[in-house]
Each structure stands twice: as structure tokens, then as C-alpha cells.
Amino acid sequence: MENNSAAGYWKATLGLLTKIMVVWFLVSYGAGILFADALNSIHLGGYPLGFWFAQQGSIYVFIALIFFYAKKMSEIDRKFDVHEE
Amino acid sequence: MDLQTLTYLVVGASFALYIGIAIWARAGSTSDFYVAGGGVHPVTNGMATAADWMSAASFISMAGLIANMGYGGSLFLMGWTGGYVILAMWLAPYLRKFGKFTVPQFIGDRFYSKSASTVAVICLLTASLTYVIGQMTGVGVAFSRFLGVSNETGIYLGMAIVFAYAVFGGMKGITYTQVAQYCVLILAYTIPAIFISLNLTGSFLPQLGLGGTLVGTDTTLLERLNQVVVDLGFAEYTTSVPGSKLNMFVYTVSLMIGTAGLPHVIIRFFTVPKVADARYSAGWALVFIAILYTTAPAVAAMAKYNLHKTVNVAIESNGDLYATESAIKYDERPDWMARWEKTGLLKWEDKNGDGRIQYYNDKTKNADVAAKAEQAGWKGSELTVNADIMVMANPEIAMLPNWVIALVAAGGVAAALSTAAGLLLAISSAVSHDLVKNVFAPNMSDKNELMVGKIAMAVAIVIAGWLGLNPPGFAAGTVALAFGIAASSLFPAIMMGIFSKKMNKEGAIAGMLSGLFVTLFYVFAHKGIFFIKGTDFVDMIGGPNAFFGITPEAFGAIGAVVNFIVAFAVDKVTKEPPEHIQHLVEEVRIPRGSKAVDGAH
Fold first, then answer.
1. Contact (CB<8Å) B74/A32
2. Per-residue pLDDT tens for B318-347?
3. What is the per-residue pLDDT across B441-451, written as a single tens digit (0 to 9) for each?
4. Closest Cα to residue B68, out of B225, B301, B253?
5. What total number of domains does chain A contain?
6. Do residues B413 and B513 both lie within one domain?
7. Of B89, B205, B237, B550, which is most buried by a Cβ count within 10 Å?
């Protein structure tokens, strides 16, 4: 409880959101679209890598991101003492 | 037992299951009808959300479009899943904390204005109605095949059944019915995919099969598919893009933020018990959605390969695709083709009069292919396959047992019905509660409110069915338009309502109206005013996709940018929101003090 203020809580929340959105952007728009052609020269099994990110990989990362977010937010809620119950 | 009887039995049994569950669950839960998720585990709620979300567009249409578009089809996969990340982090927990039941209520309260809420209703109705048109297209496909009738008759019957289903009421609101629908839908989707993956690649998981090696060869599926489609004059499967990379990028953005702006999805997160649950619930919903979404690209590639393999026997034997005997004889075509010809969605026209089916890209720019086709005496591609039939026909193309085909019919019907009914309920509550009661007749009785809602539903279904007869595109493409409309109008307003304390009502209203207007203008220019055939004015805007080659389906992202710019500009020159609204925003941002949702104003 080093910084028990609404402003601090909001800042921590936005910080977490920014980090997650960077990863979110990199796997989908980055690996899946912008750099897909370059990544396609690498293969993952029978998949060209860029194609894999666009049709499989980005979706798996999205799931991981939401659960990571939910867990981290619970920690932030407690740290700033704004959690429910 | 013949296929038609078996299909009736399986679809009938699935209906009996939903109705049985609805009756069983209803007895105990009339009181918390609207708070369906209260006391329901986040995993169960996630499953119900997934059923609600995955419509005819996801189930019936999406894989077919991916099969057509190849790599470019990834925009549906990333767009319709990546939006959940935005939804889970930017909107769901805060809207849950806010604790109102509809999106127009949130916008009306946050922007302290009935006009704002009315504008939100208009945006919501435009998006939902467009979405229902896409659903009706899918319903037509499902019912025409299921009953063995023409596509038009399928749509008329579908309209009647969807209407009965929605009016029967609250069906949709009951979480356990949706859990059952999810189970039917996901089994119907994955079982044929597993069979086909095993047949083609020997891999049990379609997600691995797509990257696997064809049985009995050392060529991978994707490599062989690339070869075949390129040899027949189509674009290479793993690299083809829709128009341009820019269009693909913008299209994906549009679908993602549209996901986060669609009212019937957002509503799901109003009904969980706690703010923390809203966050996890989005994660679980995405897990269940991902089971279908990671299977879909495998279904797409395998169905495409199987379809080519069926009509051109040289593909399997690795022979000359252009040899006379390679194209199969029409008289010896498999039964499934005859069954789909009845619906009018699959057509054969013997252009060179040799009684065989030649299927290739006759508009190819590949001179080599054009020369080979010419030499072989091919006079144009003779087979027209509507993309929307790919998933439904998939098990038949792969010659799977009849019970699998019947199961897919049940899944398609479930997907189309649940979402169409859900959207109709959203439309009816927006019209009756947020528009008529809130603005025109505040003293209306509950009974009349319900009546107005039912009339709104009936009107919506007639319009949607009528436009569904001449749809503006394939089911998934039409649904993408709905996402664009939600992305450009509702999403920015909700987001600014949470993330900007200073955004005022003038800014929000101007933003919503301009975003909606710009998007509709571009869409109607291509697809006709209110999607009525023959009223398009695409020449006026400088030809199709005149704006940097961006297609109308992708334009929602541009509309959203316009919305944000206009909103901030207007906000700058008008006075800031009252003190209590700024406090309200601060209050919404922290989880503590969340209470149960109430629908009252």
C-alpha cells in the first residue's frame, strides 16, 4: 500500500494495459500481417511461420494475455486496496 | 436409414434438448431472468458467451471464406478473437462496475443526455439489423440443405422459426440452454474436422493436421494445396491477400474494435457477479471460441483440397490436371453435389459441352495456366460453389458417415438460431426500453413495453429476411459490415466514456453521428442504400474501394478514427462535463463497490 490513491491505481492499470497491448499488436498485426512474408521463410512443422501466427499462434497468445491480465489486475486491485470484498 | 430421415431426427433431438433445458431451468429462475449469469461459474458463463457469439457467420460461413481467401482469411480469425482482448481490458470490467443493463443506458448516463442515448440506440439498431441480415443468409443455407428446398424457401422457413424461437422468449437469456447449444455446435464442428484431418494427414488434431504431411507422401498439405491452386490459376493459398496488406490490416482493426462495440456481446459481461469475474469470463469465452477458431483454418484448407480432389482426379494421382480424363464426368458426380444443386448454391454449366466438370480460375492472370486451359479445350470454369456451403458440405465432400452430416446440420441450425434470436432480443429491448419508453412514452406499462418489443422483433425479421434474399455478400462478409458499423459508432463512445474524464455530451454525440454517417456512406455507396439492390452509387465516390483500396467491410476502422477526431475537436470547443459526471468516471474505474446490475434508470 505504498501509494493508496486512485491516480496511482489508474496509472498502474494503464501501465499494464500498455504492456499487454504491445504484445497483442506484435503477434497479430506484427507477426501475422506486417512481417508475415519475412517470417514465412521459417517453417514450424508444415506451417510457414507468418501464416501460423495469422491462423493459429495469435489466437493462443490472445488467450494467454487475457488470463495474465486478469491475474495481474487482481494483484493491482489488492495493492491499492480497491478490490471487491 | 436414409440421410434425410436421419437429419430430421438429429435436428429434432437437438431442439428437444434446448426446449427441455429451457423448461427445466425456467421453473427455478424466473426472478433472476435478466441476471442469467448471477451465481453461474465463470467457465459456464464463458461457454454460454461463446454460443451467443458464434453465429452462422462463424459456424457456416467463415471457413468457406477462408477457403476462398487463403491467408487473407486470417483477418476473420484474428479480428474476431483479438477483439476479446480489447473487450476484456478496456470495456468489460468498467461497464460491469457501472452496473446498467444496456449500452444506450450507459451512454445516456455517462454523457448525461437523452439525445446521446437515442443516438446510441440508432447506432445499435443499424449494427444489429445488418448483423441479422447476415444471419438470415446463413439460416437460408442451413435450412435449404436441411429440408432439401431452394435457398429462398429456406430463408422463409428460417424466418418463421427464428421468430417463434425469439418470441418464445428468454430462451436466449437462459445460460444452460446456451451451454447445450455450445456443445452441439462445437461437436458438430470438430468431429468432421477430426475425421477429415485423420483421413488426409493422419493427425488427430486438425490444428496439427493443417501443418501436417499428406498421408502416403512426403509433401505437406499446405505445400500441395499451394501447388494445386496455383496450377489451376488461383492465388497461392498461404500468401494471398484481400486487395492489399493495408486493407487486411484495416479490416482486422475494424473487426477487433467492432467485437468490443457490439451490444449483444457487451451485455454478457453485465451479468457476471463481480468485476473480477468479468475479466476472467472474457478469457474463458475466448478459450471456447478458440476451439472453433483454430479448427476453422484447418477445415478451410482441407475442404478446399478435398473439393479440388473430388472434381479433378489427377490431384490425388499427381497426374496432369489438364488431361481429359482428369475432370470427372457430370453423370458420375458424387451424391452430395446433386443434393446441393437442389439448393441453387452449387451450379454446373457445361461450357465446352464435354459432359465433364472443369473447375479452375478462368480469370487467371497466369498466362501459362490460360494457355494450358485453352489447349485442353476448356471454355471457362464450369462449377460455381457458393462459399457459404463449404462447412455444411464439408463432411459430405469427405464422404463421412451420415450421422456426421446430420450432426453438422444440427450445429448449423443451432448457430444460426441462437445468435439471430439473441440479436432480435437486443433490438426489441433497444426499441421498447431505450427508445419508446425512455423518450416517447415514459409512463408505458410493462405489458405495452413487451408488446412494442415483439412488434419491433417482427418488423426486424421481415426486413432482415427480405434483404437476406438478396444479401449484400456472403454471411460472414455481411456480418463484417455490422462490425464496422459498431466499430465506428459505439466503440469510440464507450471507450471515451471510460478513458476520458473530460469527454462531454456534445463531443460524444457528434462523434457517434459522424462515425456512423461516414461508414454508412461508404458501405451504401458499394452495397446500395440500406442494402437495396440497384441503389449503389459507387461511381460517385470514384469507383470501388476508392479510399486507398479499402473495402467497405474494412471501413469501420476509418469511421472510428473519424469518430475520435470529431469527438475531441467538438469537446475542445464546448464546455466540460459537470463535476458529478467526472466523479462517476473515477468511480467506474475502480472495482470496489460493485453491485448487482439493475435495469432501472
1. yes
2. 888 888 888 889 988 988 888 888 888 899
3. 788 887 787 78
4. B301
5. 1
6. yes
7. B237
